[in-house]
């Protein structure tokens, strides 16, 4: 499967980077065609310029090619303040664009990412699961699934794997989480 992996963490020695390395290695071992973008590592510019914003509906766009033909999308990042890092939000703003991710007709959105089959989000959180699930009601999950993917890639299977208590994770818990990642990838229909 043509797979785009997006890593978003400022520290290349972070837990997110470790999980990205594990994920990319496993995907390649399984025969997937993987492109890894390390947004911080490449000095990604997340802000739209005035000129880019003026061309928002018409293009061309800097990140036009990122999502074209991609069958699987993997996002790997820490959850900060119940949301994605600003750098990743900038990538979303610059990649999920009209004529790339969706079309607008009479005010309605029409999906264009019909080839996208799998979306896997791998995120780390410092807090416990009960805060994210019961108190906050999984805000990031809801934004990604219903606010971003359903309008742009409604047929894509969405999975979010969250490693809670990441700041104190033990080696056995980390190993178990990495097993969850590989099991999820094994559920994909084909490499």
TrEMBL record:
Highest rank taxon of the organism: Bacteria
Keyword Oxidoreductase carried by entry: yes
GO molecular function ontology, one term from the record: NAD(P)H dehydrogenase (quinone) activity
SUPFAM superfamilies: Flavoproteins
Flavodoxin-like fold domain segment(s): 1-129
Keyword annotations: Oxidoreductase
A Pfam short name: Flavodoxin_2
Keyword Oxidoreductase annotated: yes
Any one GO CC term of the record: cytosol
Similarity comment text for this entry: Belongs to the NAD(P)H dehydrogenase (quinone) family.
PANTHER family assigned: NAD P H OXIDOREDUCTASE-RELATED, NAD(P)H DEHYDROGENASE [QUINONE] 1 ISOFORM 1
Protein's name according to its UniProt entry: Putative NADPH-quinone reductase (Modulator of drug activity B)
